Amino acid sequence: VELALEVEDLVMHFGPVRAVDGVTLRIKQGSVVALVGESGSGKSTVGRCIVRLLEPTDGTVQLAGVDITHLSRRQLRQHRRNVSIVFQDPAGSLDPRFTVGDIVGEPLRLMRRKDIPAKVREALRRVGLRPEVAQRAPHELSGGQRQRVSIARALISEPRLLVADEPTSALDVSVQASVLNLLADLQRDLGFACLFITHDLSAVEYLADEVAVMYLGQLVEQGPRARIFGNPSHPYTQALLSAAPVPDPAEQRARRPVLLGDDLPSAIDPPPGCRFHTRCPVAVDKCRTVVPVTRTIGEAGHQVACHLVNDDGTGPDVRPTKGV
Ligand code: SF4
Ligand code: MG
């Protein structure tokens, strides 16, 4: 299978802060991988390395087979069209000095394309905005409309990969679903691959083909969505999912979230051994000293890093039994 993205042993340190510490991740052409975890786990930093807003400390990032890890600004320009990013806060990412039309068309101008106004109109139409919006300034639009503008801009160059970093979490709850639906429709119609960075697990269930769970700069579990939701193996994944809202109020009441207690430990001096051991309800002595290796368990593509998970995927379950 052709890969849209191949991240190998990615490391991003900011001085003493080990924000990302050895992340390996692949995204197949046209598929959606959700990157989930608490805030501060390093998810956004992974996204920024992939679009090369950050130059990684170590490891490699390949986009459609091209290693972009250390390309210069000038070299990067040729690969810009392969990847785009949509940020959490559309207000912060749209320059107020320009019109919507200028903003959406800018990637094409950098690529010296022709017929930009027509392409801008088409890009706006795709995201559900009328052509007149091109004349407006971003601050004249609502939050939801501004996020549609960022999406139009991100997709106008027809990238193979879209990094969407919490694309709906800064929006009013009332418009979150429509922007999420839009992304899902565009992904299906245009077929780009997507790294969907989020802590909204109901959005993950709706949008993602695969799920990667991040904890303190590292991936602890990844695999097909149905497998992760139906059969989470890592105690952290189990805790995360137990706290996720579900549509059925009765089931919601019956679910008892696993309480993780303390906050996420500091990425300056992460715990030795398994980084999750300070909060893991089933930690054993070994967890405090020995780093668990990432292994494939059960069906292909399901990977987990935990000493107590067996090769067939069975192992600890930290969730209290559901119901009464
Ligand atoms: Fe918990 Fe140990 Fe597994 Fe880490 S390796 S998740 S501390 S049981
Ligand atoms: Mg973030």
UniProtKB/TrEMBL annotation:
Keywords on record: ATP-binding, Nucleotide-binding, Transport
Gene Ontology MF terms: ATP binding; ATP hydrolysis activity
UniProt-listed Gene3D superfamilies: P-loop containing nucleotide triphosphate hydrolases
Entries under SUPFAM superfamilies matching the protein: P-loop containing nucleoside triphosphate hydrolases
Membership in a protein family: Belongs to the ABC transporter superfamily.
NCBIfam families: oligo_HPY
PANTHER family (alphabetical): D,D-DIPEPTIDE TRANSPORT ATP-BINDING PROTEIN DDPF-RELATED (PTHR43776:SF7), TRANSPORT ATP-BINDING PROTEIN (PTHR43776)
Official protein name in the record: Peptide/nickel transport system ATP-binding protein
